[in-house]
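Worked problem 6 (solution included).
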Amino acid sequence: MKEPFIIYNGKKRFLNLPSEINILTFADFKEGKKETDLKQLLKRAIENPIKSPKLQDMLSPSDKIAILVEDLTRPSPKRIILETLLEEIEEKINPPKGNISIIIALGTHRKLRENEFKNVFGEKLLSQYSVKNHNCFDADMVAVSKLNESRTVKINRQVAEADFKIGIGSILPHPMNGFGGGAKILFPGVADFDSIKEHHLQYTFHKGTALGRIDGNIFYERVTSIAKDAKLDFVINTVISQDDKVSDIVCGHPLYAHLAGIKMSKDIISQKFFKKSDLTVITSFPYSEGPQIVKPIIPASMITKEKGCIILVANCTSNLPDPFIDAFSKFHLKYGKSLFKAVKNYFKSNRLILEDGAIDFNMALGLTLATQDRFKMILVSDDIPKQKAEKMGFIYANNLDKAFEIGLKVCQGNTLNIVPAGGVILPVI
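Solution. The predicted structure is:
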C-alpha cells in the first residue's frame, strides 16, 4: 500500500497513524490534465458536440447569446473556457459583442465581488463583455416552468429572453442531484429563490435522491425538466478529477452531453471500499468555500459503520457567519438525539433551519445535522476555531494526531478508511 496521505489546502499531507489502526482502504488519487492541454481539449469538444449540431450551425450573428457560468464554489477553469468559447463564437459566427451576456449562475450563493471578477476573468474580458451576478431575488424574472402544481419557476430575464443559452459547469458528485453540471447551471443557477427553496427542501430526503445517483432521482429529474422547459441549448462541462483538475471536457446537448460526462466521471472517481470502517478520515478538498466544506460528510457516511466516527479535515477560505453557527447550536439544544427526524420535518414543511439564510447554508445545516444523528464527528481545521466547531456539533481536534486519539476512544473498533479528496469521490462498497 502507498504511504497514506490526505489533500489539505491543495497539498499532500502524509498521515502518522497510531500503531493500533487497521487500514481497510486508502482511496486512489487520480490526477487530471495540465492547464496547457485545456484549450485544445475544449476546441475539440466544441467541434465534436454530443447529440447536438455544432455551435456555428445553431447560431446566427443577430442572435442574443446568454452564457451561464458556475460560481466560485465550483472548480472549472472559467477564464480559459470562456476565452476559448468566445474566440470560437467570434471566429465562426462573429456576432456583435453587445449581443453576448455572461451571467454568473449563483443560485442562492453569495455574489462575486469586484476583485473576484478581475481575478477570475481578467480585465480584458470584462472590458469587452457584460458580466453580471445573477440575483435570485430580482423582481423582474420570467416564468418558464412549473416545479409542481403550485410552484412556478422563474429565471433571470436576460437569460429567458436570449435566443441561445450556453451553460458552463463542472461534473463532480453532488449529494442530492447525483452529479453537478448539466442542467443545474440553469436551475437552480439562474432561478428565483422561492422555487430553489421549495425544490431543495422537498426533494433532498426523497427516496432516490443520493450522491452519484440519477436514475429514479426526483431532485435531478426536476432540474432536468425545468432546464428543458427554459430552453437551455448547449453545455460545456469539465469532468473533474480528484486533484481538482480537468480530466476531460464534454460539450453539446444539455442532457446527453451531461450523461456522457457522468460516465467519464464515474470511471475516474468511483472507488471500491472493502467494507465500512469504524473510523473514516476525509477532507473537504476541493471545497473550501463556506458551507460547501461539509459536503464530503455524505460520501464518508456511505463508508462508515453506524455510530462510527467521521474525521473531517476542512480547509475553509471564507467566513462561516455567526447566525449559521448559532443555528447548529440551537437545533442541537432543541432536538437533542432526534436531529434527523427534526430536519426531515423542517424540510417536509418547507421550513428553513436558518431563517432568512441562503439555501446552501440551510442545506449544509440539514445534511450535517442529519449525519450527526448517526455518527460521531470530529473536525480538524486551521481555519475554524474550537468554539465554532463545537457550536456546530463537532468534536474539535487541533491536529490529526489528536483526532485519531479521540476517534479510537469514541469508536468500538480500530478499522480506518482514508479519502484524500472528499469532494470528488463516489464510494462503492
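Discussion: The radius of gyration is 21 Å.
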